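Notebook, p. 212. Picked up where the previous page left off. The plan for this session was modest: take the two constructs that came back from the sequencing core last week, fold each one, and keep the raw output in the notebook itself so nobody has to go hunting through shared drives later. Recording the first one now, exactly as returned: residue sequence, then the structure token string.
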Amino acid sequence: MQFTVHQTINIRMLRIGSISNASVFQIGSAGSIQSAANLYNTGGYESLAQPAEFQGEIGETPLVPLSAFS
């Protein structure tokens, strides 16, 4: 079965709080959405990295200032 869809979409304002790796953002129609996950070793590494050394203390506040969405 085939469908032909004609659409007119007017967007005056679009606000997206966050999109993560598993999010799907779609405007309009899609026949099917297929997931894809690809991992590539672009650096040619053959072993795991050394563990990071602990430096300083872990504080209550974030190191990067975060803004709140309203």
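Okay, moving on. Second construct, recorded in the same format:
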Amino acid sequence: MIYLVSDISVARAATAINAAITSVQITISLSLIILLIHFMPKTNTAITWSLISKTLHSSLWPTILSADSSSSEISGAIVSVVSYMISVTTVLVAAAGILLPSGLGNGPLIPMEFRLVNAEYIPDNSPLAYSTTPNRSQFVYGRWCLYLDRPGGAIQACPGNKGLGTAEITPSLVEKFNSIPHGSFTMQYRRFYTRSGSVSLPIGVPYASVSQSFILRNDTFAVEGLIVDMSSTHPGVGFWNQTLPKLPNGGTWSQDMLWLEPVTRCIDTNLTLNYYTLGDGINDSMTLSITDHGGIVNLTHTNPTPDRNGQHGDLMQYAYMAAVLSNRYAMLALNITRRSSSVGASYSIFNIGDEGNSIGWSSGIVGSVNPLPISYFDYNADPDMLCQGYGGNDIADGSDVNVECGIFLGPPQRIGNVGRWGNVDMSQWNQKIHSCASATRASIQTVSFSTNSTITNLQSLNVTRMNLSGLNVLWAMEKTNLSIYEINILWGPVDDRYENDSSLRTIWAEGLYLPASPYERPALPPGLPSAGHGTIWGQVYPPSGAGYTFSTDYSGRSDFAITSKLQSLVAQDPENGNAQIRNLMWTDIMANNFIGTQTNNTLWVAEYRKSIQYDLRFAIPGFILLLIWVPSFLAATFLLITRSLTFGYMKQVLNHTSAGRIVVGASDLRIRDDNPGGPSRSREKEGWGLSMPVTLDLDHKGRGHEDRDNVLEPLNQD
């Protein structure tokens, strides 16, 4: 076996081989004729001379040397045209043999008709997969319900349970929310352990962490148990277990799955944090100031009230509410009024390391993308409930959407446009302060998969979301008499027969904004992954400016790649960039802590088949050759079929035109004499080839004059 490293295709290699073979074929023929002429005997039989003549005149040498048999001075159009066509076709055959293979190439994979194909589990080999707890069947769903008025997290019986002795979700509720394949019970925690705690039955308790951050990606891809979309415009996660078809050449198919996506709206507070960095970068000796760009001087006197319209609320109103509350706290803390401030006015706060730093900001917060409480000038205030529109005492019946509000420092921008970073002594920077409000939307979405080869790992899958809005299904939320603090209610798509169930709040929609959950609980709720979305927002909006508690530094403080991406998001879309940052953080944390369990034993798949493509430009010599060959072949076939020409006549023509027979006078080629009774014309040495007509004296049966005389002689004797 020989291996050659080359950039040319197989078709081009075949063309090169054909060209080499054609060259050898031509040169070896010319070489052998030279040898024949040099070594042939001077005396041979007539048959031998016929063979020598055929061999010599069928080569290219007559054409090269302009011998008689290749002369262009031919009398008679038919002989001239046919001789010319034979020469042309000889060249065309050689050219076609070389060029025709060059047009060949591997074509695209062609999808066949959809058919039912068996599917099997394909394990992931990413770091996230290695951090996933195996034996998913050991995960136990359940929930604990707390007492609002009892300190220490005292537990009460959840709806449908008869006592405190179980964390099991009542079977009737499980049946309702498992009535279609894409329910919330297809969600599990990625890492968990099982414990009993203060109840008798075990429950799955999650380990929360970020094992493999995808924050720098900008595509849709598959990981263990999830489809993850990290695009800036519509991020989210789809809950799906990777049961995939085995296809030799790949194929395409689609699957419906439960999808969760973050929805965020942000608004500029029209305040910026300004500072100068010293030669050693951001440190506790820096002086901070707040600059008013209209946030205080134009602050509204009206107290905004977001429209708490359940599934039809406007998150921008919540973000505006947070901005107004935040700027009011800032105005009070800076001891200024709307009248005393002006656009562009700056108010020095303090050095970060000062003892009077009541904000509690440190050099780890300033200079990077970090969350702040709404009342970042007064940590004792608690305006979060005003922004969210609900509190822990409100009834958990699905009427309130889980909304999280917060203030954020945007990516640092260097004043003077001399670079995004690179601290220089006394360089000036600012960070915009903006407010955001976020919620989680659930939907049933169709995801398309394709691959061009046998699936050996999830990285070979091409993943595309087909409908970003979702399918129109019946959504339900559990109705209870407990407070939001006391219970995480169930939600999800349900079968049509539960539309009028009195224990459920139902709605036909393409998506569902998930209900309020106990936001202040810092840990993921044990046994109930469907309620974990609120806790993840708690990581994006940490209370009291605590910063991100997971291992990944989303602030970009210690990772310039993250800083660069966050800056580019805001630069590319100043209106939505800050919201995109929040959404990507939520998606990244969700992907690292949740997994889907929905499997498919069979799938409708359009399997790919290999194809061959051809560039018709390389077929031009072949087309010309075909135009000559088709009429010639059809005409010749017609003459033979109708016996207008017989093989016997053809044999006699070949025999009587052979050189040996002509030399010995056994040929019926005769010099035609236009004056049979007159003197014979002289034979000129010059021009004899054109001046002396020669006739092939054969009849239509291939008989010469001697044969005809032999037939007529007995008749004459009679």
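Notes on construct two before I forget. The CA atoms of residues 146 and 154 lie 6 Å apart.
Flagging for discussion at group meeting.
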